[in-house]
Amino acid sequence: MAKKDVPPRWDRKMQQRLARGEAAALGELYDRFASLVHGLAHRVLGDERAADGITREVFIHVWEHPDSYDPRQGPLRTWVATLTHRLAVQRLRATETAALAREGSGATEELEHRVRRASVAARADYIVQSMPVPLRSALERAYFQRRDYRQTAADLGITEDEARRRLRLGLQLLSTAHDTEAPGAPPGYGGAV
């Protein structure tokens, strides 16, 4: 295996600990990724209780099937996010299909539109959360605090050119949320929802 193909050490060790059945490893994994899992599930489902259920399902799946994660395929964070997305979309489809059946309307196009919209929103959240802190800090100042690049540069103690570069790169990454194969998004986050 080439040096660049070596998965992060923490990911490999965590997978090994989970495979051995170490409850402490599950607790550590939960502490590290529970907010990511819950946030993505809530973004897709728009329901706190349903997001809680998906969060439980994800960590149960990780506990019962630790060998389904292959560290050579990517980071553990990405695998957990992809699993969350898949389970949340399945739940959304099931609940929306049941609602459409009760209403007697067969508007599957509306269902798929909702699923796509929820998937794009979840991808955008994942991209922002996965973004390096310097890029995320610049975007947060520009978007939430309505700061321009000059103000962002002053706030962060960087040059104006660096602020523009960070904002441009952050926005480029965020724009991939609509792409079918978005770089930086978990595998499977693209067209296969």
3D architecture notes:
Helices cover 71% and strands 0% of the residues. The chain starts with 8 loop residues before the first helix and ends in an 18-residue tail after the last helix. The chain is an all-alpha fold and 193 residues long. The model is unreliable at 1-5 and 180-193 (pLDDT under 50). Helix 4 (76-103) runs antiparallel to helix 5 (108-130). The protein has helices at residues 9-19, 23-45, 48-64, 76-103, 108-130, 133-143, 149-156, 160-175. The protein contains 8 helices and no strands. Keywords: Sigma factor, Transcription, Transcription regulation. This is Sigma-70 family RNA polymerase sigma factor. Residues 29-94 form the RNA polymerase sigma-70 region domain.
Which keywords apply here?
disordered C terminus, 193 residues, mainly alpha
